[in-house]
Specification:
146 residues, single chain, Collagenase (Catalytic Domain), 4 strands
């Protein structure tokens, strides 16, 4: 597991992310447990407006979302991706759910990684499987790091 293959970028402004190194390691471990090799994963933390522009331009969707995952892999055995995360949406979701922003941020980060491992979230059954996986990795992460 090479945690140096997971990168965090902040194109607009720097956002506070607790335990960045531990979180990158947890992402690498998620891929290892899901039997996927990481080539390079770029997490880009941005605003609602920034992500809305990407959603419109690349997906023809005209709405806010918390995450967009672009799988750029040419080889399924070597995951390469850009994952855009709206910190505005994450903060709003956390407030609505009554949970810490840091926990919601980690959930969304794992959600993007799980998409790259083949998990979907379109059907009711897919959503249920995705939530179970998110909760499993959240429990592991917060037990190990906090």
């Amino acid at each position: 597991m090479n945690k140096k293959r997971v990168y965090f970028y902040y194109p607009e402004k720097k956002y506070r992310i607790e335990d960045r190194c531990g979180l990158k390691q947890a992402i690498s471990e998620l891929f290892w447990k899901e039997r996927r090799e990481v080539g390079r994963i770029n997490y880009i933390f941005c605003s609602d407006e920034y992500l809305l522009l990407i959603n419109r331009q690349y997906l023809n969707h005209d709405y806010y979302t918390d995450i967009i995952t672009f799988d750029l892999s040419s080889d399924p055995a070597n995951v390469v991706s850009d994952i855009y995360v709206s910190v505005d949406r994450v903060s709003e979701n956390a407030k609505t759910l009554g949970i810490p922003r840091s926990r919601e941020l980690v959930r969304v980060i794992f959600h993007g990684a799980l998409h790259l491992c083949g998990y979907k979230d379109k059907s009711r059954n897919d959503i249920s499987v995705m939530r179970r996986k998110e909760n499993y990795y959240l429990k592991q992460y917060f037990k190990d790091s906090h």
